[in-house]
Sequence to fold (166 residues):
Amino acid sequence: MVKCPYCRHDNLEGALVCEECGLNLWSNPQVEIPTRELADEANELSVKSGWGTATFQQRNQIIIHIRDAAEPLTIAPTGEFLIGRRDSASGVEPDLDLTPYNALERGVSRIHAAFRRGDDVLSIVDLDSANGTFLNGQRLAPNQPRLLRDGDEIRLGKLVMHVYFK
Fold:
């Protein structure tokens, strides 16, 4: 396990960023962050996270806002949910077809990425796409699932979308 120097969360060995607070674990693993002193009324403070929730219940759906699209998409992923663009020549039909959103021109592969359901969480995995999958600006390593949170930005090639849990 790799302990985050900021929030002390135990992350899986090889994690690039902390699953809890998002700190880059590999930029400077020896970082020492000093503890700040709290005022006497510290017990009255409420905790507010800058990150959306990672909890994705069985009944949840995802609302996807694609940049420059008029209407959002609502999907209910089960198991593995493939994302890409339809290709009639090869017969490829992903679960979420981004062809109507200029996917070919924006560099989306036929089978670009996938949403994967877990126990109350949802992950995204790049399926070795040609132009990469980015989560909140960070390129994903191929075939390595990353936890999704409510409000995350996903970029497939140059197609940008935001995901929200419902």
In short: The mean pLDDT is 84. The longest strand covers residues 111-117.
